Amino acid sequence: MLIPSLLMFSLLFVSSFASVQDFCVADLKQSDTPSGFPCKDPKKVTEADFVYSGIGKAGNTTNLIKAAVTPAFTAQFPGVNGLGISIARLDLAVGGVIPMHTHPGASELLVVIEGTICAGFISSANTVYFKTLNKGDIMVFPQGLLHFQLNSGKSSAQAFVSFGSAVPGLQITDFALFANELPTELVAATTFLDVAQIKKLKGVLGGSN
Predict the structure, then answer these.
(1) Which residues are Mn(2+)-binding (predicted)?
(2) pLDDT at 15 over 50
(3) Measured distance CA(46)–CA(28) in Å, rounded
(4) Is 114 annotated as ligand-binding?
């Protein structure tokens, strides 16, 4: 009786694992939800859903921040949907900067591929951690904390950043304050910045009011 019982248990054990969903490739034709995109019909999934070539070339750094971020999140790379991982490429021209920002949905790991990058973050206790990183160096930025990357070298810099979420989210502090219709008086009252400086920054970043 013992052997049949063990056999039945083994079959149930294998069956339970066979029913596990291996992946949930995002169906970008449907609306996003707080828990992610709905799954694409597995019968329509191909190897192309698990391959993305978008971060193979440098981004355009001819802009205000002299930097470019090329993401491979769910919206660009449907295969990472629901897997808790994603990646992006950073390209920074000389003097380029990824301004102070936060990712509400994920921690971040940066690896420098070329050049020199000064990177850091601010803890919730307002302790600052920053370091000049060279090729091959890595740094981690805990979820939700303000952080930045700055090309501190004399040549262009490149890095890759991985995230613990397929949708890490992004809020850039400067844009949150100066690229919208938040009244200048409120910005001044809550940041102690000079009104003239606030209006100047709003003009540069496209804000109003």
Answers:
(1) 101, 103, 108, 147
(2) no
(3) 15
(4) no
Query: Are the C-beta atoms of residues 178 and 187 closer than 8 Å to each other?
Result: yes
Cα separation, 139 vs 110, in Å, equals: 5
Q: How far apart, in whole angstroms, are the C-alpha atoms of residue 112 and residue 134?
A: 6
Pairing, β 128-133 against β 157-163: unpaired
Q: Where are the alpha helices (DSSP H) in 2-54?
A: 2-18
Asked if residue 103 belongs to a known ligand binding site, the reply is yes
Is 147 annotated as contributing to ligand binding? yes
Quick: pLDDT tens for 143-197: 999 999 999 999 999 999 999 999 999 999 998 889 989 899 998 999 888 999 8
CA separation for the pair 43, 56 (Å, rounded): 29
Beta bridge partners of 39: 26
181 marked ligand binding residue = no
Domains and CATH numbers, the chain: 42-169 (2.60.120.10), 176-205 (no CATH)
CB 62, CB 69: distance < 8 Å: no
How many Å apart are CA 159 and CA 113, to the nearest integer? 5
Closest CA to 161 of 86, 77, 52, 57: 86
